[in-house]
Amino acid sequence: MLDAAFFDRLSRLRLSMGHKVSMNLTGNRKSTQKGSSTEFSDFREYMPGDDIRRIDWNAYGRLDRLYVKEYMEEKEAVVSILIDTSASMDYGLKKKGTLACLLAAAFAYMGLNNMDRVMLYDMQQMQTPFVASGGKRALPRLTQWLEQRSFDKTVDISEAVRQLPMKGPGVTLIISDFLQESFVESSQGQETTRRLLRFLEYRRQKTAFLHVLAGEELSVGLSQELTGTRNLIDMEEKSTLRLTLDTSSIRAYEQALQGFLLGLRQECARMGAFYAVCNTETDIYQLIFQELRRLYDI
Amino acid sequence: MIFESLWSLFFLAAVPIIIVLYLLKPRGTDYLISSNLLWKKLLKNEQSRTFFEKFIHNILMYLQILIIVLLVIALMSPFIQVNGRSGGRKILLIDTSASMQHVGASGKSRLEEAVGQACDYVRTAQDTRFSVVSVDATGARLLAVDIADADSLVRTLQDIECSDSGGSLLLAQSVLDTLMGDTAAFDEENAADVLVYTDGAGAAEFGGLYGAAKKELYVVGDASSNIANEYTVFTRREDGLYDVMVSISNYSDAEADVDVSLYEDAAYDKKMVALVSMHLAASESRICLFEEID
User: Fold this and answer.
1) Is A17 helix (H, G, I), strand (E, B) or coil?
2) What's the gap in Å between the CA of B28 and the closest CA on chain A?
3) Which residues of chain A neighbour B42 with C-beta distances below 8 Å?
4) Are A157 and A145 in contact (CB under 8 A)?
5) What is the C-alpha to C-alpha distance for residues B248 and B228, in angstroms, rounded to an integer?
6) Is this prediction's pTM over 0.90?
7) By C-alpha distance, which of B127, B118, B113, B110 is closest to B92?
8) Contact with chain B for residue A295, Cβ under 8 A
9) pLDDT value at position A174?
10) Average pLDDT of B220-231?
11) B34·A96 Cβ contact <8 A
12) Which of B47, B80, B164, B206 has the largest count of CB atoms under 10 Å?
């Protein structure tokens, strides 16, 4: 599905970051620190102990005082990608989990290509992330790690985010269907989202919610199977809900879904986070290069 | 509205059964979904509805109940009683003249149609005593007097046969006078209404009947088709040929065209030997003469 041409186009993109990095290893992002890159930053007066190679002799000739040149230190950014591996992600004719892995692979490649440190997290195993470093060479291992993901059980997104290690400013991508009671409940959902985004803001993370939903979930009205009396079996909790479905109930579901999406979108907009619905029926090219283009700064 | 039978009301018991069936939840088929969190809102809406609110939008149930009610009403054989049909005395005067033998487009003779109409009248009337009188050329025959039993009246009516002769309704006047009672001292409660069942020929004489009570006329058959061959006579001439004279009368109250055909004896080839077309005005009689017939 992801061919060479796709990765070639990806290599021209870079994930945008709201903050300047300061304490990571050398990379490709502007930082607040002075260093040894080629990008000039400032002059300052010579102090004993400074490297005499940095003295600007031309300035000394003009002003008879010693000045040293300072350069911008370029640091790497930490791109954290959290993948929801709950059972609900295994739903759909085109699985939501598959799209989540594709998105993770694409953004990880984007990070690696820009000398960022990419951390991939399985929300069920936050303690053992996949750390991708060393540029594009890490891609095969990364792909292998993604292929090993299995979608089962349940996941607590808030709890998973709180377990993110403190790594300084960076980008955090949460790839999930957010089908969790604390998010779906209209009153509680917005509060949960707000708290989560505040926490990530505090951690100086540029946050993006990639809301992965199956085509069947987004357009239930088109499904002829969902009419009459149905025992709706939850993939995660295995609980059964018996409902007699007709056009009015489908309409009510769609209203509830739209309310859920709108709540998340509004809260993300309020907190300055990126939010996008990723439909499994949408072509991956269109998704990455058009619908998610606001995530990139190149 | 009157219902002939009430036993079908038993089927109304199906109405609460239908309602109960709609209250029961069907078993349903399993359907795997990612999460039923969004669907739970629907369940809350469904549970929050009151007992009666559950039926508000259930058009199918209303239709089923309506169909059952309509079927029950149909099985009860409802009919609407026309004003004036109940109570009192009625005289059914049936014309049994030969013209009543005429078979119309419906395949029934005029007498059969008249008897059918009279039977329907008897069946739908309540608390009414009926007298039945038939009339033909020989005079009036009293078949029933003040009988209220509908079944025996229907049998009497169905036993009436047509005569082969003409007749006049006026011949029944004396019988009607007897049955209607004293017209001088008119007693409204016991006065008998006269219902006359006749064809076009008799209809013309309806006005001649007199009595203190009401008269109703029921004409069966098409009046214009009431043409009669009054008589046919012939004389043998000296040369061995025949002169034939036919008298044709139009008893209807409308103009009529008629073809008079003369055939050889049926024992031979039924060969038509003469044909005359005639146009008769209402109540007109004409002679048709066939001369020198071989």
Assistant:
1) coil
2) 5
3) 243, 249, 252-253, 256
4) no
5) 6
6) no
7) B118
8) no
9) 95
10) 70
11) yes
12) B206
